[in-house]
Amino acid sequence: MQFSLNAKSQSNNLIHFYHVAGKSKKLQFCSCCKGKESRADVTQQFENEQLEASFGETVFYRDNSEGHQLFVGLGDGKVSAEQLRELASNIYKKLIAERVNDIKFSLEALPFRDKASGLGALVEGFVMSAYTFDTFKKKPKKKKPDLQVDFTSKSNNATMKKALEDGQIVGEGVNFTRWLGDCPGNFMTPSQLAEEAKTAAKGTKMKVTAWDKAKIAKENMDSLIGVSNGSDEEPRFIIMEYRGAAASKKPICFVGKGLTFDAGGISIKPSAGMEEMKFDMCGGSAVIGTMRTIARLKLKVNVIAFVPASENMPGPSANKPGDIRKARNGKSIEINNTDAEGRLILADALCYASEKKPAWIVDTATLTGAMMIALGNTHTGFYTRDKKMADLVKKAGEQSGEEVWPMPLCDHHSKDMKGHYADLTNLAPSRHAGSATAAAFLENFVEKDIPWAHVDIAGTAWHVGNRQSYAPSKGASGVMVRTFVQMARNHK
Ligand code: BES
Ligand code: ZN
Ligand code: ZN
Fold it and tell me: Please, what's the largest Cα pairwise distance for the chain?
């Protein structure tokens, strides 16, 4: 995908917008359409009730001599930034279907006030819509044309140029996260994920280190070690550091569950649908994609990210139900279900993140099936007891267009996670509020005075194409990259 802004030579193919206005529901066109005969076609179709002017509706007129015209419906004419991402995907799909390689897009035609953030959202939408996954195919399905979008705008060129470039970086960050998630478990092993994190740092100021199993054991991460013991694949503890502000400024921390395949361990999962558990590293991939994006955007903030990476397999040395392991902060854990492994690998990562004394920590994980039951694939639930932290996550979600939803975390949930034979248990006495009790477990590994939020993406990390037209119908969504980048942007 290629973009230009106010370039000298522009495409002859044009995008127009139309919407219905007022009580009379009269059809209105963008200003460039004034006095043009051809608009009669759309009006005619609208009057014949062949068109509704609904949001994202497209009508295409092929004209090989003067240039093709693509008309895009805007409903009642009011658009949000998130709708611009959706709109970009409708436009992208129509142009690809019609085999159009280039288009001119006048931002003046768009009823969106802040042209720069509108342009950013559109570019994000285009880039995310162009994502395909064919790394493992002999021949890619159909070669899609490499679409060129020439934006034109009367607004300040430097501001617009930055919005365009940043939108592209964010979209690419999401796509990179999707790619990591879509890769199969036999390829995207913990050590491969660590390699990818190193690749993600290329061309940026970011530093990436990955600890091997011996180092992880030496660092007293016995909870992570226990999970990895069921597999021949070694675990990795991935550390990504980006310094964009003065050394004296406290860092912010992201932690992501990098479980590259979750068979459940000895508490093995049923085989139906188990292939989806290659996506159990989507918290980790969101964090890796976030870090690459922050570094490429050169944000003025210090950020450290941690991704505990492991498989969860039922090998001969695997955790057994009833086993007791000790996390890095000394708390002992009864493992009463080896399939509740995400919290076990995150425990050590959260201890380590706390030691960095960050301004705040946010972790994300495909942690519980219960999260899917609670919110489905429309909203990502998050947990925190810190009011300011809740506001930070909520605000960033509103700005990024990703739907985040606050969930309750209280002492009742914490009580459920007290152990009988050890300090804690990884399994609550009941399945009810399973994502809240998981959050309560994690809380034990975050130092008391550090603001912390836990984001459970189990429902939103893959297969969300029925909700967002810019997301693939099947596969990883790249959720949380946009929100986390926004949190870093907002951090002062
Ligand atoms: N990775 C799963 C959670 C999951 C399941 C995410 C399905 C998305 C779809 C996690 O490791 C897990 O297995 N959790 C258990 C915990 C339970 C044993 C307390 C669950 O949710 O069933
Ligand atoms: Zn599991
Ligand atoms: Zn898991």
Answer: 81
**CA-to-CA distance for 284 and 193, rounded, in angstroms?**
9
**Regarding beta strands 380-383 and 404-407, do their DSSP bridges make them parallel or antiparallel, or are they unpaired?**
parallel
Q: Whose CA is nearest to atom 17 of ligand 1?
A: 340
Q: Are 32 and 109 in contact (CB under 8 A)?
A: yes
Which residues hold their Cβ within 5 A of ligand 2, which is an ion?
262, 339, 341
* pLDDT confidence bin for 140, thresholds 50/70/90: confident
Ligand 1 interacting residues, C-beta cut-off 6 A:
262, 280, 337, 339-342, 366-370, 372, 427, 434, 458
User: What global pTM score does this model have?
Assistant: 0.98
The per-residue pLDDT for range 272-306, each reduced to its tens digit, is 999 999 999 999 999 999 999 999 999 999 999 99
Domains present along the chain, CATH in parentheses: 2-152 (3.40.220.10), 168-490 (3.40.630.10)
pLDDT, tens digit, 9 for 90 and up, residues 66-88: 999 999 999 999 999 999 999 99
Please tell me which residue in 162, 243, 250, 269 is annotated as part of the active site: 269
Please, which residues bridge with residue 29 across strands? Answer: 18
Give the pairing of strands 69-73 and 58-61: antiparallel
DSSP 155: S
With bands split at pLDDT 50, 70 and 90, how would you rate the model's confidence at 38? low
76 C-alpha to ligand 3 centroid (Å): 43
- Report residue 93 as tokens: 């799909």
State the Cα–Cα distance between residues 219 and 308, nearest whole angstrom: 13
Residue 334 Cα, ligand 2 centroid: separation in angstroms? Answer: 15
* Residue 492 annotated in active site: no
Question: CA torsion sign, 109 to 111 to 114 to 120?
Answer: negative
Tell me what pLDDT residue 139 has. Answer: 84
How many CB atoms within 10 Å of residue 395?
15
Q: Active-site residue 269, yes or no?
A: yes
